[in-house]
Amino acid sequence: MAVIKPFRGIRPPKNLVEKVASRPYDVLNSDEARAEAEGNSMSLYHIIKPEIDFPAGTDEHDSCVYEKAVENFNKFQDNGWLVQDQEDKYYVYAQTMNGRTQYGLVVCASVEDYMTGKIKKHELTRRDKEEDRMKHVRVNNANIEPVFFAYPHNNELDAIVAKVVSGKPEYDFVSPDGFGHHFWMIDDKALIARITEIFENIPSLYIADGHHRSAAAALVGDEKRRQNPNHKGSEEYNYFLAVCFPDNQLNIIDYNRVVKDLNGLTDAQFLEALKKHFDVKEMGAEIYKPNKLHNFSVYLSGKWYSLTAKAGTFHDKDPIGVLDVTISSKYVLDEILGIKDLRSDKRIDFVGGIRGLGELKRRVDSGEMKVALALYPVSMDQLIAIADSGNIMPPKTTWFEPKLRSGLVIHKLV
Predict the structure, then answer these.
(1) How far apart are CA 401 and CA 353, in angstroms?
(2) pLDDT by residue (tens digit) across 2-47?
(3) pLDDT, tens digit, for every residue of 48-76?
(4) Per-residue CA distances from 234 to 217, 221, 246, 413 (Å)
(5) Contact 44, 12 (CB under 8 A)
(6) Is the domain of 202 the same as that of 288?
(7) Residues 383-409 pLDDT 10s
(8) If you write DSSP's letter for every residue of 119-146 in order, what string do you get?
(9) Residue 130's domain spans which residues?
(10) Is residue 143 part of a domain?
(11) Do 216 and 305 belong together in one domain?
């Protein structure tokens, strides 16, 4: 059963939260972070992307960059830009996008639950990315950024959250990308104890977004456990920072592909090759968005095409075989375009659906890419079925939006 605990969060004062809060470290590059933080010494980017405090081109994995993260984290606390709460709390963090709000509980999740598989994954992680975040957790002795979890929705938790959010939020602001962020503290000890008890009856938590951060946080916690001869199990390093959302409030949006060339084929040959496994229909110059499972769209030379997978290309009783990302990877990217490894092939790139299909059109029309492939999004039910079965999704399958804003609360490992 899921083990969680409250914690003494480190947070910005209410009047500074918009200065401190930032996008997550992995959704923008160093130059973009440098531009967003320009003129703002309080931006969390100085901690999560500290290479911005060095000349452009500085290797973000250099030891001096990690040391700068620690220096800046200490400076933020010394200056009162981040202040630790005096008592253990849970928090509610809500996000609003396009008029729709989802409500998450900010908790400390168990390292042991991660190591034993009670916290379930649906993606592979890359060791180099894990090691980068492990270094960041180690040097700061803190989880600076939370991970994004889902849990099977629970009526009593819904009622508790509804009661909490009926009060005035601690933070309430709209970030520059137009998303609303709302944050409440849960101080009531009886309520805190009840939340902990309810989670003890929830069989699993699911990593929605942040597989590398989850792995890094858990592995550092496990390291600290093994290195401590007086380990008791109650130390802060046994837990890591997560925001847990009920599964019925979450939407996954599409995650699309653009490819540099047609693997030596002409347009006509490529379209003909698609007909082996798909019903292909030309849709014209207007953007065409896939409208159901097993329907795709292709943009090529100024025209959109609808692709509908033929019977036999998918397996409804196989949690991986039913996925559109599996169908498209096998019968378009691999069989026709010769792309065998989505993680390493430089001919392919991936575009989150938040950018819209117009971004696919733009990248093809510019000549940077030759063809775009848009997919119908994976459902939460599919994600949970895959995680429960112990399977792993193909790379670049899910895109959650809005992303968690970093800097609203931090968890120290001591």
Answers:
(1) 9
(2) 999 999 999 999 999 999 999 999 989 999 999 999 999 999 999 9
(3) 999 999 999 999 999 999 999 999 999 99
(4) 16, 12, 27, 11
(5) no
(6) no
(7) 999 999 999 888 788 889 999 999 999
(8) EE--S---HHHHHHHHHHHHHHTEE-S-
(9) 4-251+402-412
(10) yes
(11) no
